[in-house]
Amino acid sequence: DTAVSQTPKYLVTQMGNDKSIKCEQNLGHDTMYWYKQDSKKFLKIMFSYNNKELIINETVPNRFSPKSPDKAHLNLHINSLELGDSAVYFCASSQGLAASYYNEQFFGPGTRLTVL
Amino acid sequence: DAKTTQPNSMESNEEEPVHLPCNHSTISGTDYIHWYRQLPSQGPEYVIHGLTSNVNNRMASLAIAEDRKSSTLILHRATLRDAAVYYCILRDAYSGAGSYQLTFGKGTKLSVIP
After folding, report:
1. Which end of chain A is more exposed for a tag (fewer CB within 10 A), N or C?
2. B43 falls in which pLDDT band (50, 70, 90)?
3. B78 CA to chain A: closest CA distance, Å?
């Protein structure tokens, strides 16, 4: 069984379009994250949600809007896509926000977004 | 979070032990040392973590220096499947929201030679 799943795996789109990436975890975790890995392979946190509430929003353009319909899902919607948005986006989850320094994070397989 | 320093790359022969070093000279007393790895075309995966004592699990061992300013991830017998980028990450138990995310550095790219 896949613990953290993302769809789609690949996404190719034109500049200016709006797209969404979905993430689901079946681990019963209460905290979910979005990370971005750019072409130089640096992984950076974008957002973190705990019990459907936003707790971290790093310096990310407001074209990016995460939405958490329930604890098991954290979707990422991107408006007006730009060339610089091309990257691999990883969803992750963990349990126990209070002990987050201790608990491991489980990552999804990633969504490779290519903006043409 | 305190900064970590790792070699950019390392090589190992298959079935030999691998010692991956990490320097964290500015570590605070409440920083936990975590290791993650990222296999090619996959998401990162947790390997091991510790605070002060050495730790063992089914994947690896973590040796932490007595002054905690460095640590070493030990893979006892490298396999081809262990070829990955290994990240050493510090997570502060008392930094509040700042401890929730993982702050990845460049990591060490491990190549395993058959």
Report:
1. N
2. very high
3. 23
